[in-house]
Amino acid sequence: MPELLRVENICKHFDGTQALDGVSLSIEQGEVHALVGENGAGKSTLSKIIAGVVLPDSGEMLLEGAAVQLRNPLDAQRLGVGIIFQELDLFPHLSVAENLIVGNLASERGLFVDRRAMEEFCAPLLRQVGLHCSPHQLVAGLSLAQMQLVAIARALGMNARLLIMDEPTSSLSEDGAATLFQLIGKLKQSGVAIVYVSHKMDEIFRIADRISVLRDGRLIGTQLSGETFVGEIISMMVGRELKESEHRAGIEASSLLLRVRSLTTAKLNNISFDLHAGEVLGVAGLVGSGRSSLGAALFGLDAIVSGSIELRGKPFRPRSPAEALRSGLGLVPEDRKAQGLMMQMSILENSTFTVLDRFQAGRFVRLAEERRQAEEVHRRLRLKAASEDAAVSTLSGGNQQKVLLSRWLLADPEVLFLDDPARGIDIGAKHDIYEVLNQLAAAMKGILLVSSELPELLRCSDRILVLHDGESKGILTRGEATQERIMALATSVI
Fold first, then answer.
1. What is the pLDDT of residues 353-402, one digit of tens each?
2. CB of 207 within 8 A of CB of 188?
3. In 3D, which of 418, 409, 417 has the Cα closest to residue 439?
4. N or C of the chain: less Cβ packing under 10 Å?
5. Residue 12, SS3?
């Protein structure tokens, strides 16, 4: 296939960090070119440079053989380059239709808004991505998965010749992902090139023609997907051997840590389960099943209507997150930006603010001890950052997630609720987090693990609680649990 885009010797620094170091690669017309690597490898930076969002320090970009300089995203759009960001850049208080047309050169029709023309422009795009809602629906009222589809529809509406997709399925259900893959197939047939950034190896080998691997800002190599295999790509990504971590042996039923009976809130109905010290209890269910609501109830974010909770044999009914934390329960939320991190604060501040009293000496904070303990946890998690004082907003999504997890490792609660902690994280970082889970279980902590990926739940959990529409549909032991059995319960087929 003819070459559409070539980047040559692209370099970029951020605050002393070499994000890209002499990267060169080509994108052909009508191909899906996967871009993979660990968090912080430079994938998002390269994507943003191609889309005109970030300016390179040096290097050259050629579009159909002609040198181009992209000063902003509108320059890229005029040349047929679009991007779907991992962190969605939608306007929540505007309608779906307004989000689809804002900044879209293809939809400009004059000084005044023609609502009928706007609907005619948006309706086929919404049908194309399988989003069944009114164009006048406010984006703030949509689920995260629906917002992802709006972002995809907006990019498709820009008539792009090259479309960059940065973790496009991170918030999609299996049906939503299948719809996206069908779209990608149609776009390929029409000659559109796709740069597909993802950590999900099954997706990459399903749709990609070629795979380029970045590590520490450098291009390690490009492989035809039909001539390589997952193990080779992973080895290129991480530069080290990944050993499969075995889950620790099962625990004794006598070591009961958390007891929940008939828990009912506005979103949950009659939930009951036990969590033992040293156990990882998986929580499975489809979007809207109540997985996150369970964490909110245990952490004092959602009011408990009825039911009982016992922690270490004593009544536990938190009225606030502060009370839950004092009692020994922590929560790593699903949405790290909106619910977990202070993006303009430093890595150190985000990691330690829940345990600052530990470092106080009178009216002062023992800064050296604070930094020492934070750095120790960050080493355990293989956090990549130029400095402990760098703003969290400068980190990749996966490293931001590690900062959030480090906060709770420092707080050291007895029960930790992890809501999809590995979402959007590369395979090397996932192994690091799995190892930390094993270490926490070995230290006799109780872990509640929510995951959208069933293989992850099956790998990490001793037992799995399955939710559907706010109700418990059963608890499966490791021997009983299969993907088919979990999905049958999650969809209330049995």
1. 888 888 887 778 788 888 899 999 898 888 888 889 888 888 877 788 88
2. no
3. 409
4. C
5. strand
**Amino acid sitting at position 227:** E
> Which residues does residue 314 pair with via DSSP β-bridges, in sequence order?
311
Other beta carbons within 10 Å of 234: 20
Closest CA to 335 of 445, 170, 464: 170
pLDDT band at 295 (very low <50, low <70, confident <90, very high): very high
Sign of torsion, CA 336 340 343 346?
A: negative
What's the pLDDT at 172? 72
Report the alpha-carbon distance of residue 162 to residue 476 in Å, rounded.
45
Q: Any residues with CB less than 8 A from the CB of 237 and at least 6 apart, and which?
A: 36, 37, 38, 41, 213, 215, 220, 426, 427, 428
DSSP H or E run through 466: strand 463-468
Label residue 288 left, alpha or beta by phi (over 0 means left) and psi (-120 to 50 means alpha): left
Is residue 175 pLDDT above 80, yes or no? Answer: no
Q: Specify the length of the chain in residues.
A: 494
The count of other CB atoms within 10 Å of the CB of residue 383 is 26
| Edge-to-edge strand ranges of the sheet holding 271-276 | 271-276, 256-264, 306-311, 314-315
CB 266 within 8 A of CB 305: yes
Q: What is the pLDDT of residues 125-172, one digit of tens each?
A: 888 887 888 888 898 888 777 887 888 888 888 778 999 998 888 777
